[in-house]
Design brief:
There is one protein chain. By secondary structure, the chain is an alpha/beta fold. About 50% of the residues lie in helices and about 15% in strands. The protein has helices at about 20-30, 35-45, 55-65, 70-85, 100-105, 115-120, 135-145, 155-165, 185-210, 225-235; strands at about 10, 30-35, 90-95, 125-130, 145-150, 155, 180, 215-220. The strands form 2 sheets. Strands 2-3-1-4-8 form a 5-stranded parallel beta sheet, with helices on both faces. The chain has a 3-stranded antiparallel beta sheet with strand order 6-5-7. Helix 1 (about 20-30) crosses helix 10 (about 225-235).
Length: about 240
Amino acid sequence: MKDSSKIAVIVYGPPGSGKGTQADLLAKKFNLIHFDTGQYLESIVHDPKNKNDVRIQKEKQFFDTGRLLTPSWVFEIISGKAKQIAKAGWGLVFSGSPRTFYEAFGKSKNSGLIKILEEEYGRSKIFFFLLKVHSNTSIKRNSERLICSNCGRQLLGFYSQFYQLKHKHIGCPFCAGVLRKRTLDNPETIKVRLKEYQKRTNPIFAGLKKHGYKLHQIDGELLPYKVFSQIIKKIRA
């Protein structure tokens, strides 16, 4: 039985558009689980325990070079987790997933992650947003960001540069954990990711329209709090 008070939100956008930031804000605002599939899949492919798993090592090569992972493998993992979260009574927010048409809609009418969300939350409780930023913004934001190895928090852009200049150490300002750069966050890899996004994620948007969903487009160049304000207005409307 669906819980009418729970919602599901999917935030789309190219690399560096602020999907994760907005998903975190939405999770706190509406008491949702932010399922960061990119971070989750990264933990799987980079887990030393999986170094002898041929399939996972193949996916690791895709991940580290900026290419999208095999849709059927991703869907197998993500769909199971999404069902678990919904069955536990939680609302859900995705930052960037599903990333391919196959993951979103599957091979038939009654498959794909969108269908699962419809069954768990109801069509009227699913919201889609697209954060639009220039490619130069994507490259700049991702190239400059640092991520805490412990708590996963991100230090973005000029905040990262300012923090490193002001403090001799570059520990996380929240938990003092070691800050690192993701393997994905170099300009050449980001360019590959942008091409993958245009080629493999963009087709989802036409699919959403065909399925009767509204894709709310937001200017992702704005400051995060302004982006968040616009998203909140669309959900409450």
